Amino acid sequence: MAMSTDSVPALPDLSHLPHVVIIGGGFGGIAVAKGLAKKDVRVTIVDQHNFHTFSPLLYQVATAQLEPAEVAYPIRTIFGKSMNVNVRHAKVRGVDHARNVIHLENGKEMAYDHLVIATGASASYFGIPGASTYAMPLYSLADARKLRNRLLLALEEADAAAEESPMSLNFVIVGGGPTGVETSGALSELIRTVIRRDGLRIDPSRMRVLLVDMAPRLLTPFPEKASSYALKELEHMGVEIEFGRSVVEVEEHAIRFADGERLQVAAVIWAAGVTAGGSIADSLGGAPGPGGRVRVNTDLRLLESENIWAVGDAAAVPSGEGMFCPQLAPVAMQTGRHCAAQILRVENNEPTKPFTYKNKGIMATIGRHRAVATLPRGPVISGFLGWLAWLGLHLWYLVGFRNRLRVMMNWTWRYFDWPSGPRIIVADAETAD
Amino acid sequence: MAMSTDSVPALPDLSHLPHVVIIGGGFGGIAVAKGLAKKDVRVTIVDQHNFHTFSPLLYQVATAQLEPAEVAYPIRTIFGKSMNVNVRHAKVRGVDHARNVIHLENGKEMAYDHLVIATGASASYFGIPGASTYAMPLYSLADARKLRNRLLLALEEADAAAEESPMSLNFVIVGGGPTGVETSGALSELIRTVIRRDGLRIDPSRMRVLLVDMAPRLLTPFPEKASSYALKELEHMGVEIEFGRSVVEVEEHAIRFADGERLQVAAVIWAAGVTAGGSIADSLGGAPGPGGRVRVNTDLRLLESENIWAVGDAAAVPSGEGMFCPQLAPVAMQTGRHCAAQILRVENNEPTKPFTYKNKGIMATIGRHRAVATLPRGPVISGFLGWLAWLGLHLWYLVGFRNRLRVMMNWTWRYFDWPSGPRIIVADAETAD
User: What are the residue ranges spanned by the domains of chain B?
Assistant: First the structure.
């Protein structure tokens, strides 16, 4: 025997229990599994990553304020104490709902009694030429790392060029929602930090951070007051903001606008919107809902299914009067919890209940110590108080005590302006030796 | 103007000062630059990475105990307050010593008054077929991340296979020096951790960690007592150790030994030795020294040069009686400091002084709370006391207060056995979306 077996308990045989397969380990999928942990079902989360990503903080990874591991958490570790929840590290190709199996990319099948579609959403490029190839989205840890490398390498390049002739760099953020606002503010801070801290020979007046949106204001889901606050703060931080501008093409090193302007760019950050759908949704059949989402009944079951459910960004969840719930983390968590409860009700031969979304408000951070938050029918909280609210809420939801503490430490450091940050160019470690 | 220039001081013009170019930002190169910081020279560190790697802890990154960013530190940040030290993020192709320039891979040249070769060493495969392709070294951050992915993915695969038939996994470590001893102990712990914490359905008796060496004992540079202590501890941790075995071939999923045995493997970790050399050393001309190292005089200048120096693992530094200094971090740091002092002496028209190595002892850690350390002509310290000494020394040398604190927190956590670790499979974030 190679290794001692002491203190490794034998795993119980749960094969007699109904099998719930959850595709996706994001906010929605994790919430379903948490609701089913230690219940009389057997759960398998299937994800192409072995970690859960705390996506609201991806922009901080992209701007070198947090490390990838600070916003990622192994899914297995979340459920380490729940013997009935397992994880399969695999990509899903499609669903065969007639036979109640899913197809994995390695050619294997996995049978389910209940299937939960929690596959989330990805960037929507609205068919704009070049956007999917050259613009950089911010919806996965891989996206965030690629963007960080691009930003840091562009600044290194500008430093190296300084010996001959100074270089201008334009960074364009497309989309003035929370992601665009948070990323442009953080990027503006990153540039100032590397110049001041790391002594890069860059002329700040040649660094341009430009946020464009078709809409006439920032943060359209927020009240007007929040929008004007965000605008004022971003402009104070050196971000240029242009409304009513639409993008017609993205090239490798340039962006073209509908008004004919063509701008040389170091990077185009794509925060213009999301779409669900893809091969899994396609294999379910039926016409897709708005934004490629899977249409579900009010109990979160697919329109014509008894045992397939959808939650979070992947689901078109009715919110009454022909409207649908927004694609936000709180909706994913709430639908996940509801879905778990309904699966248990079905297994107990009880009727399912309809889902209702409890709007707890939305918030966005602007730079280091400012944020805007808005409560349903409540006031707009802005400035430092808003930032404290934002910080508390994000820490609260960040999975795992250890990650929470690490991120808090990082934030505390940044607050007191300590002289280091995780500005290592990670691609280096991948490609070179 | 796009961004405010307040609080960004103009950089002074230092172009009249002699230019010292240092190739490599490892222990040796950093020590040279530190010795020249704020002196009357202009320093450029050229490195293909923008970060310094604390290589003694790479095995902990490979075994998912530390994050990459915890052992890497941006070189610019180290010298953020030294206006005369700059960093060029670039690969060097060769040296034209007749014209006093180096060639960068992007086709550009960089002129120097003094050149320091601090390019380190890399794994030596001794011409064993397949070793450079399939065996996994542990000399760079990229190596460590690749190895971690391989290890974690192998364990995921074993878990997935458990539903059909249990799978056996062999991990072979080639080389019983400090790297081999530290890695095999940490790997054995990793396997036990993922089984216990993450609930992987793996039979520990089917997991084999095998350390092989041609020599008759572990840690040959240490006294016999340290070797037998390490052997006993590793065996206690479930590591199998086989002496007098030499490898004749490494295949994609197997290893072949001189005695004819062919073993299926999940990974071969290569810790058998290092070599210097490469295109930069070749372009210097002259016959290479032992292990491909650049031959230098006792003042660390190349045999036939007035202004090219070599330090650390890249240099064959005479230690008297035809012997050379070992390739260890303390030698790199000491030669780096010495080199800086001699460059300043040359610039002041003073004669150079010869380098002498001050042996401060060597140490290796075994598993979580044990280590062996040996002082020159002193006692062997082992066990928990040795581990405390090891921890103190590594924390002391770890660049930057923030990294030091983060690593200390991580170690404290592990010591008290907290339930999380950075076990995210990072390749996921690179390849998939």
Answer: 19-48+90-121+276-347, 131-274+361-427
